[in-house]
Amino acid sequence: MTTQTEHGELWYIEVRDEGAESGWRAIGDVTLRSNDLPIVIGEKDLRSRHVGRRVVEALCERARGLGWREVLVGEIYDWNVASQRCFSAAGFEPYERTERGTRWRRGL
Fold it and tell me: Which CATH architecture has domain 4-107?
């Protein structure tokens, strides 16, 4: 079995939570990879609050710092309009059709 850390940098997405022992609560994760940027936010009520876009923009800055020229998203499914909006708002554009969706990219 392989893990996301074997393919890139795995980051946990956290929000402030005064009720949590550490003051933070994990709500998802994202992996910065050379050919993909898979992001998962598990709490539905946080999905429309631009958390994903801020995370994607931060990882684009990280990629720029690593000397990357572009960031790629392997596939966003046609039915996943929320992800399409998130990546579009973060400066990504679709560039290639897949069987179930589209590949996206953003130049840095």
Answer: 3-Layer(aba) Sandwich (3.40)
The H or E element that residue 94 is part of is strand 93-97
Alpha carbon of residue 79 to chain centroid: 17
Q: Give residue 87's identity as a one-letter amino acid code.
A: F
Which DSSP state fits 17? Answer: -
Which among 19, 14, 7, 25 has a CA at the least distance from the CA of 55? 14
Alpha-helical runs (H) found in 37-95: 51-65, 81-89
Measured CA to CA, the distance from residue 75 to residue 100 in angstroms comes to 8
Rounded to two decimals, the pTM is 0.86
Phi first, then psi, for residue 31 (nearest 5°) are -125, 125
Q: Taking the domains of the chain in order of start, what are their residue ranges?
A: 4-107
Q: 98 Cβ partners below 8 Å, 6+ apart?
A: 75
- How far is CA 93 from its chain centroid? 14
47-90 tens-digit pLDDT = 677 888 999 999 999 999 999 999 999 999 999 999 999 999 99
